[in-house]
Specification:
By secondary structure, the chain is of the alpha+beta class. Among the domains are: about 50-105 and about 130-175, no CATH class; about 190-220. Helix content is about 65%, strand content about 10%. The protein has helices at about 45-50, 55-70, 75-105, 115, 125-150, 155-175, 175-195, 200-220; strands spanning about 5, 10-15, 20-25, 30-40. The chain is elongated, with a radius of gyration of 26 Å. It comes from Xiphophorus maculatus.
Amino acid sequence: MFWIYVFGDETVILDQNRTRCSRFRCDQNQVLPIMPHFLPISPALQLVCWREPRKSLTAFVSSLTVLVAMATLSVISVVSYLLLACLCVTITFRVYKSVIQAVQKSHEGHPFRSQLDRDISFSTESAQQLAERCRNRLNWLSVQTRRLLLVEDLVDSLKMAAIMWLMTYVGALFNGVTILILADVVFFTAPPIYQKKKTQIDRQLVLLRSKLEKVLLRLQDRLPGAVRRSKAE
């Protein structure tokens, strides 16, 4: 099984593990291969795609439990209960190992010594990379917000207005925690369903995209000529 992704004039082909890929560039009906390379996959994407079912199931159940608890209790209570449960487990395990060492007269030391000695501090390079990513995302968000609110492109601003109008109905039906619960369920269930029904879903998405493009074209035709998008855009 191979996964094919199209980015403009480039096509990326991944193998079954989605790690090794080949890239191709289409130019005048010709396919020009680009050097194959390895694509890193983030741990979050591996969990969502159920690459390791046990870890994905643990993450899904844990996140869903925390969100359901937040829907019924306050955030302070949820955090307190989580830390209390963690302390109960670690203290019990520490006392158990101490009793076993006293009975067996062994000197194994602290049961969590390997975790305590592990360096978990952020390096300067990691902090700089994180700060750079945050800065780039913040700059992009500020530019897009200014562009949409100041109506640089009327069509995009109308899209945002329609989305915000729909979100008012969503907010009236669900609160923030409920939306997070639904999003968590969708994030962990959508990728497996898409992998099984990829052909049918892609066909429906293409039809939906074509209909949306037709609607946008009709809307642009009704707009004044000064605010229409040029063909180059």
